[in-house]
Amino acid sequence: MSRKPNQPPPPDQTGEWFLNVVTPTSEIPVPGELAAPYEPTPAHPTDSGPADLYDPVDDTFTDWEPTTMSKVYRSRRTWRWSIIFSALFIAAIVGTAMLWAPRYAEDQVEERRTEFGELALALQGTLPAAADAIGPVTGPDSTEALTAINAIAGLQDAATNLDRLATEDHPSGLPFIGPDPGDELEPIRARAARLAPLADSLGRRLTEAVTYRTIADDAFLLPDLPVEADSAATSALSVSLATTLADTVGVAAALPTDPAFEPHRAYLDAATTRYEQWQAEYLDALRRDDALNAGVLADEMDAILIGLDDALTESLEGLRVALLQHVQDLDRESVEVQILAAG
Q1: CA–CA gap between residue 124 and residue 199 (Å, rounded)
Q2: DSSP single-letter state for residue 36
Q3: Which among 205, 180, 310 has a CA at the least distance from the CA of 260?
Q4: How far is CA 295 from CA 247, 303, 304, in A?
Q5: Which of the two ends of the chain, N or C, has the fewest CB atoms closer than 10 A to its terminal CB?
């Protein structure tokens, strides 16, 4: 049953139950240190003054002190000096490099000039031996071609060394600092780059001439050509003539392609074409016992072989003239390289 507002409580409701809740009369056991009376922490002794009028404040940070910091953080001046010293050191290195690098590059260029001149002179020194080898190599009746070819070994070595130097990178200075000293070598390098292949070409042509003569000697190695023969001899002769044709075709295919030998090569091709028909006519004359016609055909083949030798002699003479001119060109070019290298 609820009580109306502003109505006094009944006599038996005094409110003591609320006081028992707010201020309990029973005792709760607690530890001794909690039951002891509170005593504030004594304040540090200080000089008497207005602060004594107030109660001391319990400050847990009273004993705090700042942690000592590193010198790098405590002093900016030290850090700035290190930057200055580093900058000065780098500047000294750069300055030294700018002074030293151009001189070093110039020394390298001078050494390269000297090397170009020495190699050109060495190549020029091999030319007399190469010129002496031209005679035996191009002489139609010479038997010393293989021996003479050994004289050009020095020429080919000198050409290889000069070509190696001409294709190497030039010495160079620092970028963006004046003209590159290596540019001075460009005219010498260009001339040497032309001289080296020219020298190599001379050695190659001499070698190919010996090879050509050696291979060409195996063309048209014919057996004896009788004007009369029985059937067995004619059959054996037909086999030999067919073998000669096959060997000659192989010789023509293996010959070097030096343009100086074009007269001989053209004659050889024409002779091979005629030989195919000639072989059939000659064997037919032998089978018919036509000695007169067989003799005419044998004489024709002898004339073909003589003409082939004459064509080779003509080619060798043209090669001799070309090679001697080649030596003169090499001598002139090597002198030009030496003049450029001398500055």
Answers
A1: 10
A2: S
A3: 205
A4: 24, 12, 14
A5: N
Mean pLDDT on 188-199: 91
The separation between the first and the last C-alpha atoms of the chain, rounded to the nearest angstrom, is 133
For the record, the structure tokens of 231 come out as: 């059937």
Residue 113: per-residue pLDDT: 87
Other beta carbons within 10 angstroms of residue 165's beta carbon come to 19
Distance CA 44, CA 59 (A): 11
Q: Which residues contact 313 (CB under 8 A, 6 or more apart)?
A: 140
Tokens of 314: 């003509």
Q: Which residue has the tokens 């970028």?
A: 175
- Band (50; pLDDT cuts 50, 70, 90): low
Distance CA 114, CA 340 (A): 10
Whether pTM > 0.85 for this model: the answer is: no
Q: What is the DSSP letter of 180?
A: -
Split at pLDDT 50, 70, 90, the class of 7 is low
Q: From CA 137, how far away is CA 319, in angstroms rounded?
A: 10
Residue in this structure with the two tokens 């490099």, named with its chain if needed: 97
d(CA 234, CA 286): 7
**CA neighbor of 206 nearest in space, from 131, 262, 265, 141:** 131
3-state class (DSSP) for residue 152: helix
Residue 139: band (very low, low, confident or very high) from pLDDT cuts 50, 70, 90: confident
Pairwise CA distance, residues 42 & 316, whole Å: 129
pLDDT for res 230:
94
- 103-127 burial: b if 16+ Cβ within 10 Å, else e: eebeebbeebbeebbebbebbbebb
24 vs 26: CA distance, rounded Å: 6
The structure tokens 């139609």 sit at 140
